[in-house]
């Protein structure tokens, strides 16, 4: 028998050894996938890297040449209604073009390099310089972020405090309960958010493993004050992890991961980040990673387990081939393009542009004589607006008319009032590209559609 099979058996036996700690991180078999050689003891025999073919180098250089937010004079996309919902949003041409990259190996060095740059770029987007912070990019939707939190940071029987500002708090709570977590919801009236004194009272009554807050609840357009909340938690219940659902906020609302001492911010690719749907994106603090590593039971998800994903993300960021489950090279390249565009300018400028656009939308809504679900200015999100329709008018009365005018709004989502309001998304390139008229077009279309159904301000 040759030495090679025995080395591979040794490798597998190390994985299956009954006495090894269950939280020892999975070996991602990067040595096998990258076609390295091993000696009989399983040690990697280092070889000189193969020269990348000149044509492949040229193709990769062209693919990496992203023009940072230089608006084109005309979009190359087919004519279509402006998608003004709270995600998915309109996409930049360069982002969509990067999706057409030729098929490539997910453990090939060109793609690994791109993935590594994506993870580094996410650190800048979330504003963390702490090397202990850990970004994850996993194929899935924002909902997968909930599963990752529940499966990795909580154990059955743990207590979670969920701050409720709409539909998505109910869903996060349901997810946590699916994993055996005991959930307490602190609810606010529709259009409002739990007040800090209420949160403080709840934290003093019981010890919670995590507290979750939806930064912007897409069902109501309510913006939560994350910084003050985190300060409160660290003062009153410092052991409690601060978990932020930032699906509808990352990329359009200010988030300072380190400065605000956040433990988890989860999001998705298709909203303000401006990439097609299909990627679950999450940033985890070093403190939260230590909580994960100290858990007494196995993570209660396989696909979402950080036991499996952590070595993969660490290897990708170090530009090393690795494998657990197949990512989408095209989506990761689209995310790379979008992050390159976003980070080509100061984030403060991006946030200011979203705030200015939001104020323009909200002024128009007020001028029409309409009201928002989030009636208090401090509760109003900058990337979307939830708008009460006039009495006697429902979403089916106006949404078809908007579509005929080339604009798509979303209907209501909050189950208690779904028939009474519509949702207007204003984020990403519709805000940052000065050549686009999406927002003005949407405002005018809404005004005309209301007049058509007999409403006058």
TrEMBL record:
Q: Where is this region: Disordered?
A: 38-78
State its Enzyme Commission number(s).
2.6.1.44
Cofactors named for this entry: pyridoxal 5'-phosphate
Q: Where is the Aminotransferase class V domain?
A: 101-414
Mark out the compositionally biased spans (Low complexity): 49-72
| GO MF entry, a single one | L-serine-pyruvate transaminase activity
Q: Show the SUPFAM superfamilies listed in the entry.
A: PLP-dependent transferases
Task: Say which enzyme class the record assigns.
Answer: transferase
InterPro entries, per this entry? Aminotrans_V_dom, Aminotrans_V_PyrdxlP_BS, PyrdxlP-dep_Trfase, PyrdxlP-dep_Trfase_major, PyrdxlP-dep_Trfase_small
Q: Name one GO cellular component term.
A: peroxisome
One of its GO biological process terms is: glycine biosynthetic process, by transamination of glyoxylate
Q: Which keywords does the record carry?
A: Aminotransferase, Pyridoxal phosphate, Transferase
Put simply, this protein is called alanine--glyoxylate transaminase
What are the leading ranks of the lineage? Eukaryota, Fungi, Dikarya, Ascomycota, Pezizomycotina
């Amino acid at each position: 028998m040759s030495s090679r099979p025995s080395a591979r058996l040794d490798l597998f036996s190390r994985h299956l050894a009954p006495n090894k700690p269950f939280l020892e991180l999975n070996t991602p078999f990067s040595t096998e996938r990258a076609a390295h050689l091993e000696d009989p003891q399983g040690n990697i025999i280092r070889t000189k890297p193969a020269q990348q073919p000149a044509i492949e180098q040229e193709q990769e250089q062209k693919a990496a040449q992203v023009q940072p937010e230089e608006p084109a004079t005309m979009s190359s996309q087919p004519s279509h209604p402006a998608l003004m919902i709270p995600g998915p949003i309109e996409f930049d041409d360069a982002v969509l073009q990067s999706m057409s990259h030729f098929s490539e190996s997910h453990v090939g060095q060109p793609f690994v390099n791109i993935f590594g740059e994506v993870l580094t770029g996410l650190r800048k987007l979330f504003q963390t310089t702490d090397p202990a912070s850990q970004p994850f990019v996993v194929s899935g939707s924002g909902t997968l972020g909930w599963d990752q939190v529940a499966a990795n940071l909580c154990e059955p029987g743990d207590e979670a405090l969920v701050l409720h500002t709409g539909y998505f708090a109910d869903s996060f709570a349901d997810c946590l309960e699916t994993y055996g977590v005991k959930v307490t919801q602190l609810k606010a009236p529709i259009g409002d958010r739990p007040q800090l004194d209420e949160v403080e009272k709840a934290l003093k009554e019981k010890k919670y493993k995590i507290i979750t807050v939806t930064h912007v609840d897409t069902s109501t357009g309510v913006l939560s004050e994350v910084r003050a909340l985190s300060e409160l938690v660290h003062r009153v219940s410092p052991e409690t992890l601060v978990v932020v659902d930032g699906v509808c906020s990352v990329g359009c609302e200010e988030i300072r991961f380190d400065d605000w001492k956040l433990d988890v911010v989860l999001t998705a690719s298709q909203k303000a980040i401006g990439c097609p749907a299909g990627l679950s994106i999450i940033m985890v603090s070093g403190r939260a990673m230590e909580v994960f590593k100290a858990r007494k039971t196995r993570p209660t998800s396989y696909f979402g387990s950080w036991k499996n994903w952590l070595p993969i993300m660490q290897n990708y960021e170090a530009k090393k081939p690795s494998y657990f489950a197949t990512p989408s090279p095209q989506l990761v390249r689209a995310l790379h393009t979008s992050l390159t565009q976003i980070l080509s300018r100061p984030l403060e400028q991006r946030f200011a542009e979203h705030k200015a656009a939001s104020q323009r939308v909200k002024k128009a809504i007020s001028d029409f004589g309409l009201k928002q679900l989030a009636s208090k200015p401090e509760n109003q999100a900058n990337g979307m607006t939830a708008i009460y329709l006039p009495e006697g008018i429902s979403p089916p009365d106006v949404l078809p008319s908007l579509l005929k005018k080339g604009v798509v709004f979303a209907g209501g989502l909050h189950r208690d009032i779904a028939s009474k309001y519509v949702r207007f998304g204003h984020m990403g390139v519709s805000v940052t590209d000065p050549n686009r008229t999406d927002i003005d077009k949407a405002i005018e279309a809404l005004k005309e559609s209301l007049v058509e159904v007999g409403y006058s301000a």
